[in-house]
Amino acid sequence: MGAPPIAGRTGSPIGPEERAEYARVVEEALRSGALGEALRGAPPAAAERLRSWAHEAVDDLWAQAAAEYREWCRARAAGNSQEGAPGAAPRAAAGPGGDLVAALAVLVPLTAGAAAVIFLVLGYLLMLVGVQQAAGASLVVTGWAGAGVAAVTASLGLGRLAVTARRRSGPARRSAAEEAAHAAWRAALLERAVLPYLHHRLLDAADPGAPAGSERAGSRGPAGPRFVSPGFDSPGFGGPATGQ
Question: How many whole angstroms separate alpha carbon 47 and alpha carbon 52?
């Protein structure tokens, strides 16, 4: 089933790219390691409950990787600023002159190619029937010259298109620093936030009486859902050391 939309309660800066990334992290967590093994033996609705709860708790889970997210934003902004400066010149050059060159790059090969075909056909016909051999030979020479012009101009046009495509695809590629910052943020979100939360809610999700998309009574405090990493007890709530 598709993941529910992310709606931050406190106005988190979660844009479309971050929404999609968060949803992928949740799906990866549901399939990973011990959690994935436990869900394979749990009721079918357990995974959907965990998925829904993870999206409801997006603000609290997002905050667990806030530092790494800020680093990713800084790396992304730095990459955009570096790509913006050299890219300004080609955009400024795009205008009536650039449009004319682009039009000629298409029209010249087509016109030269069509003329070459006509001259070659007429020249070889005249030579074949034996009428006006000199004129036929001239037409053949002219036709082959036109074919050469068509080939050269078509090659130049294709080269220009390749350079333009490579220049436009440059800003879309992430820098190495941005890739590293993105990977660090994603790992922190998965290992420090989403996985511990889902492990903590696993027993709730496996309870047939827990409706999907809701928090069990008493599991949400005033600041949002309370969760701890598996194997640890929150201070004051009892544990082996207190005997409660």
Answer: 9
Q: Other CB atoms closer than 10 Å to residue 98's CB: what's the count?
A: 14
Query: How far, in whole angstroms, is CA 228 from its chain's centroid?
Result: 32
* Assigned token pair, 144: 């082959």
> Per-residue pLDDT tens for 170-194?
544 567 888 999 999 999 999 999 9
Phi, psi for residue 118 in degrees, rounded to 5: -65, -45
Tokens read off for 239? 């544990």
Task: Report which of 7, 57, 33 is spatially closest to residue 227, judged by C-alpha positions.
Answer: 57
pTM (predicted TM-score): 0.50
Taking a C-beta distance cutoff of 8 angstroms, is the pair 30, 36 a contact? yes
Q: What is the mean pLDDT of the chain?
A: 74
| C-alpha pair distances (Å), 155 with each of 40, 113, 147, 149, 165 | 58, 13, 12, 10, 15
Helix (H, G, I), strand (E, B) or coil at 225: strand
Q: Are the beta carbons of 9 and 59 closer than 8 angstroms?
A: yes
Enumerate the β-bridge partners of residue 221. 224
pLDDT digits (tens, 9 = 90+) for 88-144: 444 444 455 556 777 777 788 888 888 888 988 888 888 888 777 788 888 888 889
| E strand intervals along the chain | 220-221, 224-225
The DSSP bridge partners found for residue 224 are 221
Domain ranges of the chain: 16-78+175-225, 95-169
